[in-house]
Amino acid sequence: MAKLTTRTEDYSKWYNELVVKANLAENSGVRGCMVIKPYGYAIWEKLQAELDKKFKETGHQNAYFPLFVPKSLFEAEEKNAEGFAKECAVVTHYRLKNDPDNKGKLIVDPDAKLEEELIVRPTSEAIIWSTYKNWIQSYRDLPILINQWANVVRWEMRTRLFLRTTEFLWQEGHTAHETKEEAVAEAKQMQEVYTEVVENFMAIPVVKGYKTPSERFAGADDTYTIEALMQDGKALQAGTSHFLGQNFAKAFDVKFVNKEGKQEYVWATSWGVSTRLMGALIMTHSDDLGLVLPPKIAPIQVVVVPIYKTAEQLEEIRQVVGKFSSELKAKGITIKFDDDEKYKPGWKFAEYELKGIPVRIAIGPKDLEKGQVEIARRDTLEKQFVALDEVSDKVETLLEEIQTNLYQRAFDYRKDHTTEITTYDEFKDVLENKGGFISALWDGTEETEEAIKNETKGTIRCIPMAFEIPTEGVDFYSGKPAKFRVLYAKAY
Amino acid sequence: MAKLTTRTEDYSKWYNELVVKANLAENSGVRGCMVIKPYGYAIWEKLQAELDKKFKETGHQNAYFPLFVPKSLFEAEEKNAEGFAKECAVVTHYRLKNDPDNKGKLIVDPDAKLEEELIVRPTSEAIIWSTYKNWIQSYRDLPILINQWANVVRWEMRTRLFLRTTEFLWQEGHTAHETKEEAVAEAKQMQEVYTEVVENFMAIPVVKGYKTPSERFAGADDTYTIEALMQDGKALQAGTSHFLGQNFAKAFDVKFVNKEGKQEYVWATSWGVSTRLMGALIMTHSDDLGLVLPPKIAPIQVVVVPIYKTAEQLEEIRQVVGKFSSELKAKGITIKFDDDEKYKPGWKFAEYELKGIPVRIAIGPKDLEKGQVEIARRDTLEKQFVALDEVSDKVETLLEEIQTNLYQRAFDYRKDHTTEITTYDEFKDVLENKGGFISALWDGTEETEEAIKNETKGTIRCIPMAFEIPTEGVDFYSGKPAKFRVLYAKAY
Questions:
Q1: Does the complex come out with an ipTM higher than 0.90?
Q2: Chain B contact set for A45 (CB, 8 A)
Q3: Is A41 on the interface with B (CB under 8 A)?
Q4: Residues A358 and A441 in one domain
Q5: Do the chains contact at A61 and B41, CB–CB below 8 Å?
Q6: Can you tell me whether residue B479 is helix, strand or coil?
Q7: Interface contact flag, A67 B33, Cβ < 8 Å
Q8: B120 part of a folded domain
Q9: What are the residue boundaries of the Aminoacyl-transfer RNA synthetases class-II family profile domain, all occurrences included (chains A, B) (predicted)?
Q10: How much is the average pLDDT of A290-317?
Q11: Which of B38, B92, B130 sits opposite A63 (nearest CB)?
Q12: What is the CATH number of the domain that holds B434?
């Protein structure tokens, strides 16, 4: 098995090689669209299940809305339409016919032109709010708390596996409320849910913050974001939750009779995370040997590789493994016994390192004699011998340790790569040479934000919720009085 | 709550009303596309989970392939292309722009025309086999056993909620094998898996059979089907599994080196069930009061309606219910306590009948005195009083009884509506007046099949696997020697 390009050699190349070789995803024959391969999809399924559980615990129900948005609905909310019009797939015809000039080939049938074009959803606010209009008459119909698992399409010009693809998978929550306060609380609650899952389940520390107006979702009054820091010092927006105000209610004329008997526009939120999180997972924990998975999200948490020469030895190993294996299964731990004869142990070791299995157990004839196994942890690559009757407890503890260690490692990296600056020279130096988050004062103007972005590619990732509004100090770029302390970074 | 149109008045109207009023689905603003509402989606999720479990138990893994099929791939397998070309959504552009003549409106940007049109997948053989080509070199790469949960689009002219919609949700399995025998065995295995889930989980009896050549999937060498009979005497194809031969391997040039070192084309299957099964579920069990759900697929299996006048009474009821409720939950039974004050018990009774909740428990002050509850079963509408300490065991037994009874009821209906005929007059009489399956001899020719279809709308649903090949007898229509005993019916 050829080794991966190392991260220091070429981070971007390392990423692509890892994604393909670890069987996570690959590019397809369709421009910008990926194939999510079984191993990648198994990780995504575990993440889906965890998110779905949290959504249901917070009172949401799943539903499904159409893939297509008729153009007249698409354009109804002007800012939203403007935000997505430049990158949308448009269905114009509903039939192909035989090409009269070219046997065996098909052409678009000009007689099957749609009266109104259909946009393949880049996001579903338009289709959903045109539906909610019929569902909402009175305050009794509120709140509506719905989530949808779906595919969406945004015609991106430069694509990267998981990070930016023309089609991607996501969930999108769309809620409707009586009051502004309730909608804001919902949007913040979902930011909190995302934080919990991304931090506790994926072991990725995030910064919770507000997006600046220029970085908000098209059609939102406020966007709450969680921002993660990748190993190469670039930031990645891991999830967003939007307070949509009454923008969609007004665009689709969705009113309700309130408790006082008066007509009011409905308040809205929407929130989503996508297969992009797979990219964040990879770029937070992995190393030059391949993927490193936090145990909670790993489809296989423990792999056992038997080392043997004879069928008798294998049988003996199988019996010994069977005992702790069923103990581990009883604890809810996923374990695989790999007795595939097509590959040698060394090949398997490398393969499971590439695939990021958190714990690997090796056991051979000598171990049998000594009544032990060798346990290797993927995060630190440390190995130790463990007595057979202690394997089950040891592995359980180790999985918890790995989960904690991966989070802590990423947290420490972020801490080391968050730099407070006061001058533009410092800013450029850190952005170019060290990377990471740059904590700085901002005057709150789009001009400053835009100028810095154009000059350096550094963008304001968020106004962290944990930061106090500064009472004094000046913007490091404009010299004007500061309004916010923000985090800048180059971003995916 | 207005009552449903009855089934005898207008079966089709009853169906549509039930689907909408029970919050299963509704038509959307997009032609032919439905919105699957939360309650309908919750049922679909339970079915998905059951199917997914069975797929994994039989060695399959999930993956995800692109929504779009470039035209050149779409047309590669000729029969498949021919079968779907007439009803496919075609993406021709990737951008909208502002309409210069109409402020606030958008038009398709003619400068953003795709070089090659993209078809929204009606099924994924083409995109998947163009991918498998890169995954398969040797027999060591086989079998590939993959399933995908996805949305697909077929431009149907006449649509019905769940039964026939432009966009629908489904799963599609796509497998690749070394030998013909292995592929045939896989296709039959999946027909068996579908049978198990549809019969045991959905309580819908099915006939397993082969499709006639004219009814096969476009591109298949053989299609195995499961056929169900609806309450109105019409048949419904509930799931199909296809032996695809080497058709797609040849179209996409997918060869492998076999164990003898020789190049061979790969053998294939595909198989799918869709949200159409929701229609089968509704039309198998429901009645004039609404949906009737088999307990195994019901998102809520038991509902408790408290009857009270004072807060003290409600509190007392809550305590009594709490006890058997936690016993039921411990048994894995889903139970809802409905203390919503906005609605009266009578309204709730009707609502839960409409929604098909298998068991309803009512409890009021008199019941408290007597230490009992009233239990009503949805399938027979029978009620009985049960002592409080027997509720948990009684409900558990009752749920099993309801599941069995619903299957048996549907089975008996089908038995009563399967008629063997020997003359065309009998055939037409049964088809028009009694409905159901018609068992008859067929000469095996497409001419006979086609003529009967055109004259009567009766089609051959399948050649049941349970039927022996007849050694004598003649086709009731053509008088020619019979080749098969088949089942005819009008079909959804």
A1: yes
A2: 62
A3: yes
A4: no
A5: yes
A6: coil
A7: yes
A8: yes
A9: 26-294
A10: 97
A11: B38
A12: 3.30.110.30
* CATH classification of the domain holding B223: 3.30.930.10
A74 and A144 both lie in a single domain: yes
Longest dimension (CA), chain B: 82
Q: How many CB atoms lie within 10 A of CB A140?
A: 10
pLDDT for the residue B249: 98
Task: Please name the amino acid found at residue A76.
Answer: A
Number of compact structural domains in chain A: 3
pLDDT in tens, A182-199: 999 999 999 999 999 999
| Residue A165 in domain | yes
* Chain A residues inside the 8 Å CB shell of B355: none
User: How close B33 comes to chain A (CA, Å)?
Assistant: 6
Name the residue of chain B whose CA is nearest to A67's CA: B167
pLDDT digit string, tens, across residues A435-478: 999 999 999 999 999 999 999 999 999 999 998 888 889 999 99
Task: Say if the Cβ atoms of A85 and B104 lie within 8 Å.
Answer: no
Tell me which chain B residues have a C-beta less than 8 angstroms from the C-beta of A278: none
- The residue-averaged pLDDT of B381-389 equals 97
Please give the average per-residue pLDDT across A341-361, as a whole number: 96
| B431 within domain boundaries | yes
Is B42 an 8 Å CB contact of chain A?
yes
Task: Find chain A residues with C-beta within 8 A of B43's C-beta.
Answer: none
Q: CA-to-CA distance for B328 and B324, rounded, in angstroms? A: 6
Is the pLDDT assigned to residue A1 strictly greater than 90? Answer: no
Is residue A407 included in any domain, yes or no? no
> Same domain for B151 and B231?
yes
CA-to-CA dists, residue B297 to A68, A146, B19, B206, B483, angstroms: 29, 21, 16, 17, 40
Q: Are residues A207 and A75 in the same domain?
A: yes
Same domain? B110 vs B227? yes
Q: Give the pLDDT score at B1.
A: 61
**Residue B84: which residues within 8 A CB-CB, separation 6 or more?**
B74, B122, B123, B154, B218
**pLDDT exceeds 80 at position A2:** no
Domain boundary among B233, B250, B285: B285
Three-state DSSP state, B417: coil
Q: Stretch A314-341: mean pLDDT, rounded?
A: 96
Nearest to A85 among B42, B96, B130 (CB): B96
Residue B209, pLDDT > 90, answer yes
**Gap from B53 CA to chain A (nearest CA, Å):** 13
A180, amino acid identity: K
Shared-domain flag, residues B467 and B382: no
Which residues span the domain enclosing A48? 11-285
The DSSP element (H or E) to which B185 belongs, if any, is: helix B180-196
Distance CA B299, CA B315 (A): 26
* Mean of the per-residue pLDDT values of chain A: 97
One domain, residues B211 and B246: yes
Chain B, residues 371-400, CB within 8 A of chain A, namely none
Quote the mean pLDDT of chain B. Answer: 97
| Span B253-259, average pLDDT | 97
Q: Based on C-alpha coordinates, what's the Rg of chain B?
A: 26
Percentage of chain A beyond pLDDT 90 is: 97
Q: Same domain for A33 and A95?
A: yes
* Interchain CB distance below 8 Å, B150 and A146: no
- A69 interfaces chain B, CB cutoff of 8 Å: yes
Final residue belonging to a domain, choices B262, B285, B308: B285
> For position A348, which CATH number holds?
3.40.50.800
